[in-house]
Write a structure and sequence with these properties.
- The chain is mainly beta.
- The chain folds into 3 domains: about 90 residues, Immunoglobulin-like, CATH 2.60.40; about 110 residues, Immunoglobulins (Immunoglobulin-like, Sandwich), CATH 2.60.40; about 100 residues, Immunoglobulins (Immunoglobulin-like), CATH 2.60.40.10.
- It contains 2 helices and 26 strands.
- The strands form 6 sheets. Strands 9-10-12-15-14 form a 5-stranded antiparallel β-sheet.
- β25 and β26 form a beta hairpin.
- The radius of gyration is 34 Å and the shape is elongated.
Length: about 350
């Protein structure tokens, strides 16, 4: 009997606590499409105390710092009204959003919340570095022939109140590149473009290329800052006018270096023969790990000439057990311009 009475009391208590005490005139608002560069957007919700007791809003809960609520904190008598003002900051938040704002306080039930939603259109210059904004920090040249030169133009804008200078001579550029700046200074609230010229021959790059570089920007204060940029490209050999091509013949597709003790190194070689009539040029040799050094004895092989690729593996700290690496050998063989060699090793702490 006591248990039954206790249960009824608990049910009644839950029913009282969960009863609706606040009613919003509208419990959601869609801002629709808004611009990231347009600044804060705001909406106001009104609500009524529909209970028979005085309620007091003590705080609010939001799921994101991008949403700022401001609410009536004074006690609200039965039938009285309050206001909830909500501001949303779209800066740095492109795409759809859906946020919940809940009221918390004395006599307020858990259903006292509203929603805001919308779609933020991204800023046309989303990358921000101080007062300068860029559409991208990546200069992507795509596929280029080894004898080709190309230019990528990068759009930027000065969002500040004073001019900005791009320091051409101080730019930290990769080999084979040149910076084009068609203006003396970038005036406030103006847009323009700078060009990056990439000479594949002068760069001596082959295959996939990724190179970081830095743009040096001088603000009105005189302080220079570095903007991290990137260059990507894929350099290919042009075989259109090759009549008697070379033929790169590797002794094997895989090399087992064997066992190597941590702190030591191991060296092996793999032979490469030119079985074609024209000279074979070893354009580039890349290993998937800096711990593996691969050096050809010679880089130009006449007909039937042979060379060795010397491989030296020095395990890094943390490399233990079976290790696998990839070596890419780029040549002027049109049948297979890039040869992949699988390299394995077994790293132990002691012999």
């Amino acid at each position: 009997m006591k248990l039954l009475i206790y249960t009824i009391i608990v049910w009644l208590t839950i029913d009282i606590v969960s009863a609706q005490t606040i009613k919003f005139a509208q419990n959601s608002h869609s801002f629709g499409n808004i611009s990231e560069e347009g600044g804060m957007v705001r909406v106001e919700f009104s609500f009524t105390n529909i209970s028979d007791t005085t309620i007091t809003v003590q705080s609010t809960y939001v799921s994101c710092g991008c949403t700022t609520p401001e609410v009536t904190l004074a006690p609200i008598k039965p039938g009285g009204q309050g206001r909830l003002k909500v501001a949303y900051n779209p800066q740095g938040r492109p795409g759809k959003f859906h946020k919940k704002i809940q009221l918390i306080g004395k006599g307020i039930d858990t259903s006292a919340y509203v929603y805001i939603s919308g779609q933020v259109e991204p800023h046309p210059y989303p990358v921000r570095r101080g007062n300068i904004r860029l559409q991208t920090t990546l200069a992507d040249f795509g596929k280029l022939w080894h004898h080709q030169t190309d230019t990528v133009w990068l759009s930027l804008a000065n969002m500040g109140k004073s001019a900005i200078n791009i320091m051409q001579t101080q730019a930290k550029l990769p080999k084979g590149t040149q910076l084009l700046i068609p203006f003396d200074s970038l005036l406030p609230q103006t847009k323009d473009s700078i060009g990056l010229v990439y000479n594949a021959t002068a760069s001596q790059d082959w295959g996939f290329v990724y190179k970081p570089w830095h743009l040096i920007v001088r603000q009105s204060s005189g302080k220079a800052s570095r903007v991290a940029m990137q260059l990507t490209a894929h350099i290919r050999e042009d075989f259109e006018f090759v009549d008697a091509p070379p033929f790169a013949r590797f002794m094997t597709d895989s090399v087992a270096l064997g066992q190597v003790v941590l702190g030591g190194n191991i060296t092996r070689s793999v032979d490469l023969t030119n079985q074609g009539k024209a000279p074979l040029y070893i354009r580039q040799v890349k290993a998937s790990c800096q711990c593996l050094r691969v050096v050809p004895e010679i880089t130009v092989l006449t007909a039937d000439k042979k060379t060795s690729l010397k491989m030296t593996y020095t395990p890094k700290k943390g490399q233990q057990g079976k290790q696998r690496f990839l070596v890419l050998v780029t040549t002027n063989d049109p049948r297979q311009p890039v040869k992949r060699l699988q390299i394995t090793a077994n790293v132990t702490k002691t012999k």
